[in-house]
Amino acid sequence: MNETARMTAEKHRDYTGSKIGMWLFLSTEVFLFVGPFLLYAVYRYRYPTDFHNAAAGLNLVLGILNTVILLTSSLTMALSIASVKKGNKKLSMLFLMLTILFGIVFLANKYVEWGAKIEHGIYPNSAALLKHSNGEIIFYGLYFFATGLHGLHILAGVILLSVMAVLIAKGKIDPSDFIKLENSGLYWHLVDIVWIYLFPLFYLIR
Amino acid sequence: MDNTLPSGSVHGASFYEERGHYRGILSWILSTDHKRIGILYLCSVLTLFGAGVLLGFLMRLELITRGPTIMGPQTYNEIFTLHGVIMLFLFLIPATPGVFGNFFLPILIGAKDVAFPRLNLLSWWVYMAGAVLAITSLFTGNGPPDTGWTFYVPYSLRTGTNVPLAVFSIFVLGFSSILTGINFVTTVHRLRAPGMGWLRMPLFVWTLYATSWLQILATPVIGVTFLLVIAERVFGIGIFDPAKGGDPLLYQHLFWIYSHPAVYIMILPGMGIISEIIPVFSRKVIFGYKAVAYSSIGIASVGSLVWGHHMFVSGYSYTAGVLFSFFTFLVAIPSAIKVYNWVATLYKGSIRVDTPFLFALAFLVQFSIGGLSGLILGALSLNVFLHDTYFVPAHFHYIKFGGGGFAFFAGLHYWFPKMFGKLYNKKIANYALLISFIGFNTLYFPMFLLGLEGMPRRYYDYLPRFQPLQVVSIVGSWILVLGLILMFGNLIRALFKGEKASANPWGGATLEWQTPSPPPAENFEKIPVIEHGPYKYR
Amino acid sequence: MDRKEDSAHIVVQYRAYAIVWIILLALTWLTVTISGVRIGGVTIFFPLLIASVKATMVLSFFMHLKYEKGLFKLIILIMLVIFLVLICLVFSDVGYR
Prior knowledge:
The complex is a heterotrimer.
Chain A (H helix, E strand, L loop, with lengths): L2 H10 L2 H32 L1 H8 L4 H27 L2 H31 L7 H4 L3 H36 L9 H25 L3
Chain B lengths: L25 H4 L4 H29 L10 H36 L8 H23 L15 H4 L4 H28 L12 H33 L12 H35 L6 H14 L15 H29 L8 H24 L1 H7 L4 H30 L1 E2 L2 H28 L13 H31 L1 E2 L38
Antiparallel strand pairs in B: 1-2
Chain C lengths: L13 H20 L11 H18 L7 H25 L3
Helix pairs in contact in C: 1-2
């Protein structure tokens, strides 16, 4: 096979290339969260007691529930890709729909959790929060910022996966070309990993 | 190497004549051809460069007398902020990767295009969106930001000016930069022509590769920092607000974690251009190819560890100061390796004194002055004395403008015949360079002296004893602007009236010179097979 | 010519995924249970360790890193090193101020 044809073929469907691109993008996502994590480390170091007290105010049950939901959604995501590779379109669609559903349930949960906090007057710059100590104000500032940013990523993921569902339905994702679904899956798993760290850092300060 | 390839018109159509899906302006702004995107970037960044020059010119002019001359203090603060934002985020960061990277990276490695052509077009659109947002921020809210380009908290949280939109525009521009970075890294990994091993890549490609990693890894940090500033202003989350227990110094840390590597995003590709020009006009293989190639990676890595030298007098810990000062001295080593290797390349070469070569020499002089003055600033004890004086802007203008900017001009004069298929008037170009060089040094060298005497930067007014040197510097800005007008006037004239350029007017050995000027849409008639290193002279 | 030298053809069995999932849930239970344990006066050690084990499992199995070429592992390594360096340098300020 001559080289020109190889280059052309690679340009049109470079499976590894697409995946390199995706992993590079994921590393930018990681560094987006590095900022909040760095700030968290510094402020927890500076205000250990305040962080301890403030964390007690978070709803641990909802936190655990959301962790389980996201871990399960990662499982269904991986299963969806595996089914596509095996050529089982229906099963793949089912797993993808489940993943999207879990994403939406996660957001709903988050809504309830934030709603309860806001109802108690605990939100950035609220009069009730400003009465707390500096460390607690910072804790909640970081909490709302980090979980908010993470929530936006879940939302983006839900939209992305919905687009993938349409592509599967149209037959544009099949056993011979599934890189789009696989890359979307990588994104979804990364958002899960971010939550794996956020959960103990905010909910489990004992 | 044969230097007598036919020009574009003989051998099929150039990429300008290529018929795509669209006609007219759409054939440009919707094109995924890396060469067209390069030209789009060229037009955009030069327009904004013009705006930045104008602002800098006005800023200098204001200082010709003490007290108000042509504007009030608030306007002055806004103008130096805008000058910084435009020159850094809208010109220097996207300029060399966006223009020459897009146009030449695929050609230099023997590929037909970048790895993700549509993403490439998107990056230009996102850049334009960022530029439009930045300009919108001037006319909405309570006027343009007056914080300086660094947007330091807590002032940026308190000022009534339009900080949120301005930092959001930089957040958007960051996306464009990231997309370019991802594209280039993937392209270098996947699309090198057969036989082009890593150590056969032209040095410009090496610098772009190192720069792209910086763009990918550093940009998100400033993105999230600016999101925090926005969240602070909109919701008052308190993370940087001392009144709520926040620590403003952490903002400075996060800001410089990106913004110092950003300096290398601006200068590294420029160094790559110089590494291309010097061997060609010395007719000699570059001295120490591997050292120059790896020093790009070295600069990118060590350069990411020196951000704290912007904070020596901020009141952070002495331990950090010592560490950051040490790393600052360390980063001088890979930069010096490059300079020494360029000079060693000249030694016993058959030097052809031509326009691009002269630009490269101007770069060498100015970059060396800038780099050495950086070492002075990197010394802890001296920095206490020089911090926030004119010495600092003098230093970084020598690096960014005298280095990065002049390297960009050098690249423009080196690759102009290839990009447009036209030759410019070399004599006028040489004069333009001479005038710009004199203007540049008259403008910025007095700033070193003013800084040593204690003139603080960003001040609207000054003591009478500073006036003579201020006036010298301001006259320098006029000379510089004259030189720039002549330089670009000459190039624009060449676009319309220039002689046709041959495929290889400089006798270059890298791949771009082995395809017609301007290149055909597919870059090469047939993908080249590489059998030797990039600079095949003696 | 088949250049799929990577994970494209690897199909992990459904059962393997399920086992990973069960371990992840078990680790979550574990981290909640022992979150109060102190190592050298701080409680952050075990939660971070367990989170990292979980993240590694997601990376290796769900994200197929286990089957990928060196470059992908290198990207992860670079990120990890840079993050540690950033933490160290920032704490050279914060810790000694």
